[in-house]
């Protein structure tokens, strides 16, 4: 695949469909018995793919550090107001974005992103490490946001966001850990799930949903 300056950039395989997920899940279950048991409860994993580009990245920024319900409500208000492209976000300004439900910091981040002129198509040609570096250089985008974009917008098969609270809770329960693993600990654990860490993340997200239902948390 062509990269910057015409050089070839090696990119990991992608998850694009249910067959890709099934392949990764089979590999994961064969490698780790606890995943095998969890996948038997979960069933087929959801793709959870989001659109690439500004809309997909803004969607992830909105989801930062808020509940799924709160993020969904804000996204609905943003969509109703037509605030899904760079031009519309710039035109709305901070006041318009706050009226649509964004906090002051996230309104600022959305405007910064809208003015970034990011080459979204070019991200597809970069390695995971290069995409992480490019995205986290933008104010308001930290490692978690960049990792989620790589997983669910670019479809990278070997990405894992160890700082995600749901993944930490699910990993603690699935692996009978005495405490919730810190990001560095979970990141080290996830190395054993390469080259299908994105499948492991999907499995843990789904397992977290099972735990919530089991505990009556909705």
Topology:
Blueprint (H helix, E strand, L loop, with lengths): L17 H14 L1 H10 L11 H10 L4 H13 L5 H14 L4 H11 L5 H4 L4 H9 L6 H10 L12 H10 L8 H8 L6 H18 L4
Helix pairs in contact: 1-2, 2-12, 3-6, 3-9, 5-6, 8-9, 10-12
Please give a handful of descriptors for the protein shown:
218 residues; Endonuclease Iii, domain 2; disordered N terminus; 2 domains; Endonuclease III, domain 1; mainly alpha
Your description of this structure?
It is a single chain. The radius of gyration is 18 Å and the shape is globular. By secondary structure, the protein is an all-alpha fold. It has helices at 18-31, 33-42, 54-63, 68-80, 86-99, 104-114, 120-123, 128-136, 143-152, 165-174, 183-190, 197-214. It folds into two domains: 18-41 and 159-214, Orthogonal Bundle (Endonuclease Iii, domain 2); 54-152, Endonuclease III, domain 1 (Orthogonal Bundle), CATH 1.10.340. The chain starts with 17 loop residues before the first helix and ends with a helix. Helices cover 60% and strands 0% of the residues. It has twelve helices and no strands.
Q: Structural class, from helix and strand content?
A: mainly alpha
What fraction of the residues are assigned to beta strands by DSSP?
Answer: under 5%
C-alpha termini separation: 44 Å
| Uncertain segments | 1-9
Total separate domains: 2
User: How many strands appear in the DSSP assignment?
Assistant: 0
Average of per-residue pLDDT values: 93
Reported for the largest beta sheet, the result is: none
User: Which fold name is given in CATH as the topology of the largest domain?
Assistant: Endonuclease III, domain 1
How large, in whole angstroms, is the Cα Rg?
Answer: 18 Å
The CATH class of the largest domain, by name, is Mainly Alpha
- Count of helices? 12
* Helix/strand order: HHHHHHHHHHHH
The CATH architecture of the largest domain comes to Orthogonal Bundle
By CATH, the superfamily of the largest domain comes out as Hypothetical protein, domain 2
The residue fraction in helices comes out at 55-70%
Tell me the overall shape: globular
């Amino acid at each position: 695949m062509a990269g910057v300056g015409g050089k070839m950039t090696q990119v990991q395989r992608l998850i694009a469909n249910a067959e890709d997920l099934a392949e990764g899940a089979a590999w994961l279950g064969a490698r780790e018995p606890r995943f095998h048991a969890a996948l038997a409860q979960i069933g087929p994993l959801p793709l959870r793919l989001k659109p690439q580009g500004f809309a997909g990245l803004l969607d992830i920024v909105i989801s930062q550090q808020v509940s799924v319900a709160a993020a969904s409500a804000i996204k609905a208000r943003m969509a109703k107001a037509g605030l899904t492209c760079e031009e519309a976000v710039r035109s709305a300004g901070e006041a318009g974005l706050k009226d649509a439900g964004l906090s002051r910091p996230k309104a600022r981040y959305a405007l910064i992103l809208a003015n970034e002129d990011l080459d979204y198509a070019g991200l597809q040609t970069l390695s995971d490490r290069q995409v992480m570096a490019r995205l986290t250089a933008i104010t308001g985008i930290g490692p978690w946001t960049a990792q989620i974009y790589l997983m669910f917008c670019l479809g990278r098969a070997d990405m894992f966001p160890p700082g995600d609270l749901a993944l930490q809770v699910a990993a603690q329960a699935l692996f009978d850990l005495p405490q919730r693993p810190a990001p560095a600990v979970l990141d080290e654990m996830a190395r054993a799930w390469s080259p299908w860490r994105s499948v492991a993340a999907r499995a843990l997200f789904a397992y977290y949903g099972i735990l919530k239902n089991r505990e009556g948390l909705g």
